[in-house]
Specification:
This protein is α+β, with helices and mostly antiparallel strands and 350 residues long. Helices cover 29% and strands 23% of the residues.
Length: 350
Amino acid sequence: MKEKIDLLKAIYRPDPNHRGKIRITLDLLSWLWQNRGKFYYFYALGLNKQESRMQDFLYHPEFVKLQKQFDVSYYDPLLEDKFLFDSFLKGLKIPTPPVAGIIENKMILWHGAGEKVPLEAILNRNLDVYCKLVFSWGGKNVFRLQVTNGQLLINGEETTVDDLKLQITGGKYILQETVKQHPELNKLNPWCANTLRVITLSDGIEPGILVAILRVGINKNYVDNASSGNLQSGIGLDNRLAFPGSQWGYPPKYFTHHPDTGVEFKGFEVPYMNEVRQMCIDIHRYLSYFFIISWDIAISEKGPLVIEGNPVPDLMPMQMQSAGFRKMVLEYAERYKKFRASSDPDRKEK
């Protein structure tokens, strides 16, 4: 309750750039009605400001309706299963970090081997990998795992195989080699790979880029996802960050400079962005049965690497780093609907 009260105070905080209280109240009530209570985003999207326009943003119920209309759920495992997706990328010769192995039930299967071995065998190899659930969302239980001459580290702290077993109970884990990120991104934050979240849309014929943001770790975190308190900033068409770094919270916080390195967000140029956009479009061409896909991309010294592809559960967080993209999504949706109807005349839309 306190968090929501703090958010309401922020919405109504006196500011020459904010609308009057009566107008804010009317807009807020309209927003709550249209979005089934998601009032966090009313502030996060700046809808209490003079220049904002609610009609520029795609409401969550609108997006859910599109998903129900277009989604074919039996294709989802291709994106959601990280091991399957890795095999798909390698079959197309698309750059992705190598997979060292799979951990399940306290056993490890090294990539290319035909037999599982006890987890203790992990001490026999030198490794620098990220360990993550094969099926997971939002950076859940993702950690850096390093082994050097029999010494085991988790997120930089020495540990034991027994402790590792406690951390990976339940589920199957993939070991994906750590990316040595581009030196320019190290200037912004060198403690973890600062990955891109890129969303593509397809009209069934040709995909396009909806939005791209850079996710940036802070406090020397080993992961960069927003759910761990890290920052994100939207990328403009000039390949530079166009927004301050935003941090999830009630209310969300905004940073003009990185709190650890002091590098300014707005104007920071992201290397290889043209190649990133083209790579995401190229992959989506192979997956035209998906209307919308979210890509996680790392930038190495040699260029972009695809980390993951995911179905998109919600577009609201991405609109925090944009001026809204309701019009573009609806235009693609209309063309995609026509494509599906023409390719499968007997298909009945939901």
